[in-house]
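Hi again,

Forgot to attach this to my earlier email, sorry! This is the prediction with magnesium ion bound. I've pasted everything inline since the attachment limit keeps bouncing my files.
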Amino acid sequence: MIQSFVFSDGKLAGRDLEIEALRIVRADKGLVLWVDLENPTDEEIKTILEGVFQFHPLAIEDCMTPSSLPKIEDYEDYLFVVTHAVEFTRTTKFATMEVDMFHGKDYLVTFHRTAVPSVTIMRDRMTKNAGVIARGPDRLAHTLLDLIVDHYGPVMDELRSELEEIEERMLARTPEKEFVNELLHVRGDFSRLRTIIRPQRDMIEKLARGESKMIRPIMLPYYRDVRDNLARLDETAINYHERLMLAFDIFLNKAAFEANEGIKFLTAVTAVTLPAVIIGGWYGMNFAHMPELQWRHGYLYAWTLMLTMTLVMIFYIKKKKWF
Amino acid sequence: MIQSFVFSDGKLAGRDLEIEALRIVRADKGLVLWVDLENPTDEEIKTILEGVFQFHPLAIEDCMTPSSLPKIEDYEDYLFVVTHAVEFTRTTKFATMEVDMFHGKDYLVTFHRTAVPSVTIMRDRMTKNAGVIARGPDRLAHTLLDLIVDHYGPVMDELRSELEEIEERMLARTPEKEFVNELLHVRGDFSRLRTIIRPQRDMIEKLARGESKMIRPIMLPYYRDVRDNLARLDETAINYHERLMLAFDIFLNKAAFEANEGIKFLTAVTAVTLPAVIIGGWYGMNFAHMPELQWRHGYLYAWTLMLTMTLVMIFYIKKKKWF
Amino acid sequence: MIQSFVFSDGKLAGRDLEIEALRIVRADKGLVLWVDLENPTDEEIKTILEGVFQFHPLAIEDCMTPSSLPKIEDYEDYLFVVTHAVEFTRTTKFATMEVDMFHGKDYLVTFHRTAVPSVTIMRDRMTKNAGVIARGPDRLAHTLLDLIVDHYGPVMDELRSELEEIEERMLARTPEKEFVNELLHVRGDFSRLRTIIRPQRDMIEKLARGESKMIRPIMLPYYRDVRDNLARLDETAINYHERLMLAFDIFLNKAAFEANEGIKFLTAVTAVTLPAVIIGGWYGMNFAHMPELQWRHGYLYAWTLMLTMTLVMIFYIKKKKWF
Amino acid sequence: MIQSFVFSDGKLAGRDLEIEALRIVRADKGLVLWVDLENPTDEEIKTILEGVFQFHPLAIEDCMTPSSLPKIEDYEDYLFVVTHAVEFTRTTKFATMEVDMFHGKDYLVTFHRTAVPSVTIMRDRMTKNAGVIARGPDRLAHTLLDLIVDHYGPVMDELRSELEEIEERMLARTPEKEFVNELLHVRGDFSRLRTIIRPQRDMIEKLARGESKMIRPIMLPYYRDVRDNLARLDETAINYHERLMLAFDIFLNKAAFEANEGIKFLTAVTAVTLPAVIIGGWYGMNFAHMPELQWRHGYLYAWTLMLTMTLVMIFYIKKKKWF
Amino acid sequence: MIQSFVFSDGKLAGRDLEIEALRIVRADKGLVLWVDLENPTDEEIKTILEGVFQFHPLAIEDCMTPSSLPKIEDYEDYLFVVTHAVEFTRTTKFATMEVDMFHGKDYLVTFHRTAVPSVTIMRDRMTKNAGVIARGPDRLAHTLLDLIVDHYGPVMDELRSELEEIEERMLARTPEKEFVNELLHVRGDFSRLRTIIRPQRDMIEKLARGESKMIRPIMLPYYRDVRDNLARLDETAINYHERLMLAFDIFLNKAAFEANEGIKFLTAVTAVTLPAVIIGGWYGMNFAHMPELQWRHGYLYAWTLMLTMTLVMIFYIKKKKWF
Ligand SMILES: [Mg+2]
Ligand SMILES: [Mg+2]
Ligand SMILES: [Mg+2]
Ligand SMILES: [Mg+2]
Ligand SMILES: [Mg+2]
Ligand SMILES: [Mg+2]
Ligand SMILES: [Mg+2]
Ligand SMILES: [Mg+2]
Ligand SMILES: [Mg+2]
Ligand SMILES: [Mg+2]
Ligand SMILES: [Mg+2]
Ligand SMILES: [Mg+2]
Ligand SMILES: [Mg+2]
Ligand SMILES: [Mg+2]
Ligand SMILES: [Mg+2]
Ligand SMILES: [Mg+2]
Ligand SMILES: [Mg+2]
Ligand SMILES: [Mg+2]
Ligand SMILES: [Mg+2]
Ligand SMILES: [Mg+2]
Ligand SMILES: [Mg+2]
Ligand SMILES: [Mg+2]
Ligand SMILES: [Mg+2]
Ligand SMILES: [Mg+2]
Ligand SMILES: [Mg+2]
Ligand SMILES: [Mg+2]
Ligand SMILES: [Mg+2]
Ligand SMILES: [Mg+2]
Ligand SMILES: [Mg+2]
Ligand SMILES: [Mg+2]
Ligand SMILES: [Mg+2]
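Structure tokens for the complex follow:
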């Protein structure tokens, strides 16, 4: 699906142009053009990216194939940017969506395989009230990047709540196997998130330092603002990852703590009951001549002996704090 | 709440001016102006930051929203600085408070959401006896930064005493669950502290190297002094964090040490009592023909056998150092 | 085996030339020459590398001896590149194959000890339809490097499936020894893979930045494309390595979890059966006067006592969650 | 206590001058002056550092307050250096002593709170036979730094011997608690040592690269020599720290090894004695009709059964290597 | 022992000159001179290094005292290089030998305390057939460095075989104490090796980049070749160290695996034999009235009860995979 927007002096001057009209607008330096390709057919890609804009075949290839690492590339006449939006839904849980941009002097072309909320919001806004944003492709690109980065926040919050659930369960008692699976899963999500946040931060940092002539000096503070948000997200992700690994270490050693409690109880109970067991066994022997068995107070003696030994054991066990 | 201070030649020339007066002082190059916004209303923010000073909307936005990472940003006419003060109270324990500053050629604007002790001290000092500090906004800014960094010391001491308590309890015996919670909490505090100390150190380092034209060369040693304090705090925080992780490692392995003591005792006791148990059981059998039972010294033989075997066991146990 | 290809204006103009013909083509600036040495004899090496091309003896030595680290070296008149192709076969599993290249203004010389699939594919393509690729040695070199890097993908997939098998077995129960061997083996493979990916990435990065005059500016995006693929592979390898180490940590602590289950059961069973054992032993004593034995409901009393004590134990055990 | 030395052409020309004389010598470019302040009174600090030399108030403050991090600061007219000497005594064990230096064109001022052996040695040498050392403050400063760094050697040796004692005790059996305390203590000492060695190395490196105009090119190899010693000490400290952490890891896992020995013995002993216990218990039952009890060779049968089962158990135990 | 070699146009023109002759050759720019000092007397050091060559006293001191860290130092007229040869012998095992070099425009002076194989080989070669090597001190130095680095290979192989033996023993069963000692010893060897390889690599890298005017551009590829070898050795050493630490981790957790096997067996055996023990004890009680004892099929009932309970236990044990 291809949607196009033509702006003149910050006002929407046209929408969804035909190919020929696109070519004309592209050639006109006074107009700002945004073309959004949402899951386009190979035909559409060929017509727009190759035909109208004549982008480098490698950049087009990067659009068409999935790219797991964000990047920025300077092709003289335009910047090519690979970035990733994120989403957290009930069904698919954490998911990343690649958004590619071609950023020229007076146009912005965006490319994505699925419907991306940030782009949808942006299209709505441009339709209703473009305003100052539509005055240059650097403003358009910034607005889109800002929307994408703003969507990281709630995803991070979802991951934090998963992390907190894991921390809680780790301190409580839980069946091992599922827990480990879940922990590995959340770790994987954090890992993927950091894999895309870090290079995006570096990439926006480059733009914010004014390294590209596509972005006017007046826009630099806005790119710095996006970089700040990414820096904060990165810092947060590092911190969460550390907490996760700590929870993991505690979990790994949990078994040892529980085993210790069991061993202490076992040791205490064995020690305390040994006198009764030994004496009971010993005087159950059937020797013909066992003087104690004939003693008048033999049974009392057995009780006294047993209780004394048991008390000594209890005393010892208490001292060792095994009970 | 907005408070303003006008200094002329290092002397307090006016306080808490009206908006119009502020505009006039702002335009007068000969006067030094400090405006402090403590938890201002949106109205006040609009009037002062947008109206009087015309700061960049992104910097104003950074003031209004919480920023977890300190930073410095150069907007040609002024520096915008996000910094964090810390406090350690009985009730809230460790807390950070954002303090933002706009540092122009002849003015300083500070912004904070809560009452910050360092700012309060500074306001008192300026009211009573401004002196040399009031001769330039770089001196004002340095004094405030110095007060903020000086307040890190006692907080670090509080955290160290929490750390030492944890180390002590870790070497003693404690119930697991609360201890782990506390350890995670203190680790979180150290982590947050380092998250703000590190970038503040880098930020002050930049100023101390004379990268900003807002700070006169004569002030550089004073900024280096603040940087030294932050470097020291950072070094200390790193060291405490290492100690904490070491304590954690010891704690995690504590259960294994205790379990070992239990196992050694259990093993020793089992070994030592086995002869009595086996012999007691064996000669408790009811076979019609068991010659030993009829022996004249059968019972003595049982005792001798039991004691001999027990002594052998004790000897073995001693050699293995299990008791 | 030596194969040579002469291209004129992107068309194959000759194949497998004699030495003398090679010398002539080499001297002719208008022709592009590719010479591939597959496991050449020392004689052939001497004739071609020393005789025809007069390469530096150290570069020739680097060809002849195995080099475990990829590198790039600039000898004024030509680039010398050591790179590694990878293969994953049923028999030898993961294997690396060194491919060395001499990249001059109008020639490419490749050297390898074994048949390398990427080179074979390249030779076929050059024979059938050289096209634009044959217009310069920088295109030839890029195509070969691209083919080599493309072959890393399936090998990475094989390693990932080995990794996933290990993760699965780690969560299930397996005999220790073989598992550890396998884990060490896969770790070794990942380690070797990263040892060659990292320096190749740095090496291609250098070429992609235009540091060598052998590569025309128009080719730089193509080298950046290869670098992107290597960056992606490196990122993936790092991630897999982390997962492997995590699986390893879980595996190491698995025994403790299982031991804990055993200990809990042992403790529970010991506690629950102790009353029966103690009472059974105690009233098996043969003292002449044991009043309980003569009680009318003595046996009932024994049962009651035993069941009561057992229930207390079961209650305690349930509370401790040992069962 | 203040001591001063005036050198003229490498010869001691005067000692312990009055304040007025100090001022005159300070103004005379032809004389070299060394003033050493050992635990001076506030009065003395004021007179000398503020009055005679007019050092920067922040540098004076750095002298007066303890500074845990070494540093170098360039105040145009002089270098200000914070460095740390170390000592290892029977009573206080490892201790660091701050030594501060002001290094001008023709003077050196040293400041320290306690008597520092290196300074004492230096004073003696200057009194007896100053020689070439007294020809410039860069030589004086180098000699003092060299003496300070030379004193690190024996302290490092003491720490190594403590480390070796810990390694030895870790491999032997020791009571837990004291050992952990000692290990934490030695780790703390190494940590403090590295905290001061690292920045001193960086600091001397800067001087050795000729970054300060206070140090003549001819002196650079001498500063490189000090840097080499610090690099060596740093390398050694890193290595010792790694050994300590390894010893710690072994110690933490020691309990598991010992517990394993106990468990193996317990398991073996339980298995081997079970037949006797079971048979002994079984044929101790008092059923009216138990055929085996009336068998002619019933008791022999019990023995045979018991021995057979025990042998089977021993065989199994041997195979499992539990004994 | 001092040996000297004079070369003229790559031919050996003289050997073992007198001091006076050395002075003359040293002054003659057309001749290349190599002086090798093997464990020289203090007298010889004084005469040659101070007298004939007038090297810097600090460089001479560095020769005379052991230097554990390789380094390179540029004294205008000559390079001073500290490097380390290695050896692995049956008796001393792994040993390092310091080799120092002074590398001037037309001379090379080497200094070592013990007979170093690389130097011996070099002396032989120079005596028999100097050839192109003798045409410049940069060739002489390169040849010596190359020989020294070539000798690292076999030492690395020895260490690898020690490592593999450790890995094998770690997977098998071994007595703890000696194993730990050996592991610590091998780790120490790897650590020492890396301590000298890393700085040597950096040092040769500097030379290979052409930073010294003592080395002609034509020699740079040769120094790069040495650097490649050191890079490879470093990579290998890092990899071996990782393997060693992994083996160590496995070893540390081995006890837990074995203990687990013991505990599983103990738990299984206890559970399976409990019915017999309980029933045997219970019906061994001597109550006057125990109905079961008088039952006609009482004993059969006891057997049935016991076998049923035992089968239930076996079933449970199998399900839990404890046997
Ligand atoms: Mg893509
Ligand atoms: Mg990928
Ligand atoms: Mg998910
Ligand atoms: Mg912002
Ligand atoms: Mg945030
Ligand atoms: Mg771990
Ligand atoms: Mg804020
Ligand atoms: Mg921020
Ligand atoms: Mg707190
Ligand atoms: Mg200071
Ligand atoms: Mg301080
Ligand atoms: Mg400190
Ligand atoms: Mg650890
Ligand atoms: Mg453990
Ligand atoms: Mg090779
Ligand atoms: Mg393999
Ligand atoms: Mg691509
Ligand atoms: Mg990529
Ligand atoms: Mg562990
Ligand atoms: Mg101080
Ligand atoms: Mg101490
Ligand atoms: Mg030296
Ligand atoms: Mg030394
Ligand atoms: Mg050393
Ligand atoms: Mg030496
Ligand atoms: Mg050795
Ligand atoms: Mg070699
Ligand atoms: Mg080579
Ligand atoms: Mg190599
Ligand atoms: Mg290798
Ligand atoms: Mg570990």
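The domain at 1-134 of chain B is CATH 3.30.460.20 (Beta Polymerase; domain 2). The beta strands of chain B are 2-8, 11-15, 32-38, 71-75, 78-89, 93-104, 107-112.

That should be everything now.

G.
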